[in-house]
Amino acid sequence: MPQEKRRSDQLPISPLVGEMSGRTEGGALERCRQSLAFLLGALLLGFPTPAFAHASDRGHVLLLPTGYYLIGGAFAVAVSFLVLALLPPTVLDRFWCRRLRLFTFTDNARILVSLASFAGFAILIAAGLFGSRDPLSNPLPLVIWTLLWAGLTLLQGVFGDLWSWLNPWYGPWRLLLRLTGRSDEAAAWRLPRWLGCWPAVALFFAFAWFELIDPAPDDPARLAFAAGLYWLLTLLAMLAFGYDRWSRSGEFLGVFFSMVARFAPIERDEDGRLDLCWPGAKLLTAEPLPSSGIAFLLLALSSVSFDGLSKTFFWLGLFNINPLEFPGRTAVIGSGSFGLVLTFVLLAAVFLLAVRLGQRLAGADRPFSQAAGLLVWSIVPIALAYHVAHYLTAMLVDGQYALAALSDPFALGWNLFGTADMQIEAGIVAGASSAWWLWNIQAGAIIAGHVLAVLVAHGFAWRLHPQPARAALSQFPLTLLMIAYTVFGLWLLATPTVG
Question: Is the pLDDT assigned to residue 415 strictly greater than 60?
């Protein structure tokens, strides 16, 4: 991700550097108290009624007291805001600074790992073109949609940037440079600084459209063509513009995974030393994102949100579609494309409005772009939480299909890993008991993600506003947005859907 050069009037790299002023203005304190009282009043008046929850296979409807979960989720986010508003900044300063040294890990095997990943990718493309046409027995759609998009995202959020090792471009790119005698600095073209990561935004939108709107994203041959073309074009771009530059600007998977990896509790420095830190601590050391980076993170959250919304009876009813007689994805291409764009635009507008109102409440003297570029990092825990909640059942069920398909990638009766004949336990997500524990895991992930987002946002608020009262005031509108998004996320889990 391109980053702006540091100037004397910019913020320091670490939000924890420097003393936090304990002095507050009387007017700011009074506005802070009024805002907190208003927040509690809004919560007490705005609690929703109980709803129906469903099991993740969408075929089982179970009556659960989901209204209490909605209330509890909103209350948890609100209380976290109140506690952070009253805590001295030095308390969280010491909290975020804690590190536990682990060991040193070098990059010696990175090329070999990437080359092995490329070989596996080539086999998957061949399986997509020449293997079974059944998406549940062909490994390509199962690996891309379940193991890569759903599973690796979760691993990135836990273990850090695995994608920089596992991506199928680094090894071939280094090999081609050695064969041609070129260096990465000798790239033919330079990307203009103003471009930022807008190419990655455009490619991520195309990816989201293909996953959510295209009539047949699981078709092995169709997916093989799209994935193979993307790999080739990305490799050419890396050779033309340089690996690092295109990885930060145009390779959307690398941009997405690197942002998610900042949440991970494992930190790796330039010397390869691994440290254990608190989840989200690395987010607070980030530089402000440019407008393209802001758009990318908001698109990541809005796309997974719309994926859940587009399947609800509510959304389909807006377009006079009977959810009990769903006509198929071909019939909703237009409404789906509109909804994908609309969800992004609305989320971006509300987020930027919340940041703007917070800046005005706090009487901020920092540029708006700087505040938005920092506070948007608080979206990462929410996006990761939505990702876990949304794809949990896919990982549990389709992950089993992936293990079976990988043993026989071309449907020739092979059993390479001894899993080709494994019994698929689809019942793990069916039934009343499964619905209960799945709901609690999904709801817990969403609530925890929003609470962590409030924690991260307050860290940035103190970085922007050294006076605690002003920092709390600046976060009031953004906290209201997070409370509303918590309720929205839990409602998505609880409302009946198709599919």
Answer: yes
Q: Are 60 and 140 within one domain?
A: no
Q: How far apart are CA 101 and CA 80, in angstroms?
A: 29
Matching residue, tokens 């976290």: 80
Per-residue pLDDT tens for 158-215? Answer: 999 999 999 999 999 999 988 887 776 666 688 888 899 999 999 999 999 999 999 9
Q: Are residues 145 and 165 in the same domain?
A: yes
Same domain for 265 and 351?
no
Strand partners, 101: 275
- Residue appearing with tokens 């804690």: 98
Is residue 352 pLDDT above 50, yes or no?
yes
E strand or H helix at 268: strand 266-268
The more confidently predicted of residues 187 and 434 is: 434
Mean pLDDT along residues 283-302: 95
Does 118 share its domain with 246? yes
Q: What is the pLDDT of residue 1?
A: 39
The pLDDT value recorded for residue 84 is 74
CA dist 294 and 311 (Å) reads 27
Q: How many domains does the chain have?
A: 2
CB 450, CB 382: distance < 8 Å: yes
CA-CA distance, 430 to 417, in Å (whole number)? 28
In whole angstroms, give the CA distance from residue 51 to residue 241: 52
Tell me, yes or no, whether 111 and 259 share the same domain: yes
Nearest-5° Cα angle at 200, 197 to 205: 130
Closest CA to 174 of 250, 252, 117, 259: 117
* Tokens read off for 326: 């769903």
Residues 117, 91 within the same domain: no
Cβ atoms within 10 Å, residue 496: 16
Under 8 Å between Cβ of 447 and 76: yes
**Cβ proximity of 267 and 160 under 8 Å:** yes
How many Å apart are CA 84 and CA 403, to the nearest integer?
A: 45
Q: Are 139 and 124 in contact (CB under 8 A)?
A: yes
Choice among 60-69, 155-164, 306-315 with the minimum mean pLDDT: 60-69
In a domain, residue 283? The reply is: no
Pair 220, 126 in one domain = yes
CB 381 within 8 A of CB 456: yes
Domain with 202 in it: 102-277
pTM for the full model? 0.84
All residues at 6 or more sequence positions from 484 whose CB lies less than 8 Å from its CB, including other chains: none
Strand pairing partners for 62? Answer: 53
Query: To which residue do tokens 């320091």 refer?
Result: 12
